[in-house]
């Protein structure tokens, strides 16, 4: 099974709608993810969810190198566990979604701030499929000190 050495991690900044803790692993929230009882965010915003019991939301994360590489199946198990979903409901199709996420994350340079966007696309046979887009956030004209103050480390 293929493993990946980068992951999207959180930082805390209510100004940027990022409510997770520093270095907390993030995964994108599916459309059916409940917004009830969580931190307030604009309704049209796609966001990441922390992979822990609190499932805190973050509009942004940062791609960082992780100490122990992770596989898509391990990431899926972490997400299912944090959601309280039994592991036996994990399918190969679901693992493929986690694989796609990890592949996209690992193409982005380390220390890059990212956001997530979900949209629907039509396939050639006119079926609607969900498409995941990770986009980098432009931080041009930001000083190194300002970046360090926001993210807690040098970007």
Describe the structure.
This protein has 155 residues and is α+β, with helices and mostly antiparallel strands. It has one domain. 22% of the residues lie in helices and 30% in strands. The protein has three helices and seven strands; from the N terminus they run E-E-E-E-E-H-H-E-E-H. The strands form two sheets. A four-stranded antiparallel β-sheet has the order 1-5-6-7. Strands 2-3-4 form a three-stranded antiparallel β-sheet, with no helix packed on it. Helix 1 packs across helix 2. The longest helix has 14 residues. It starts with a strand and ends with a helix.
SSE map:
Elements: E1 3-9, E2 26-28, E3 48-50, E4 57-58, E5 60-71, H1 72-83, H2 92-105, E6 113-122, E7 128-136, H3 144-151
Antiparallel strand pairs: 1-5, 2-3, 3-4, 5-6, 6-7
Helix pairs in contact: 1-2
List descriptors.
single chain, about 160 residues, alpha+beta, four-stranded antiparallel β-sheet, three-stranded antiparallel β-sheet, 3 helices, 7 strands, about 20% helix, about 30% strand
Radius of gyration: 16 Å
Shape: globular
User: How far apart lie the N and C ends?
Assistant: 31 Å
- The count of DSSP E runs of length 2 or more, i.e. the number of strands, is 7
Biggest β-sheet: strands ordered side by side in the sheet: 1-5-6-7
Low-confidence stretches: none
């Amino acid at each position: 099974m293929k493993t990946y050495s980068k992951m999207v991690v959180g930082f805390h900044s209510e100004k940027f709608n990022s409510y997770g803790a520093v270095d907390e692993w993030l995964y994108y929230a599916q459309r059916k993810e409940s917004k009830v009882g969580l931190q307030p965010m604009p309704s049209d915003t796609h966001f990441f969810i922390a992979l822990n019991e609190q499932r805190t939301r973050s509009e942004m994360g940062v791609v960082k190198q992780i100490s122990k590489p992770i596989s898509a199946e391990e990431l899926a198990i972490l997400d299912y566990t944090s959601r309280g979903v039994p592991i036996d409901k994990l399918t190969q199709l679901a693992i493929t979604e986690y694989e796609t996420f990890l592949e996209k994350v690992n193409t982005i340079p380390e220390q890059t701030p990212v956001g997530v966007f979900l949209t629907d696309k039509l396939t050639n046979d006119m079926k609607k499929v969900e498409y995941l887009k990770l986009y980098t956030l432009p931080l041009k004209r930001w000083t190194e000190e300002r970046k360090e103050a926001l993210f807690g480390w040098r970007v």
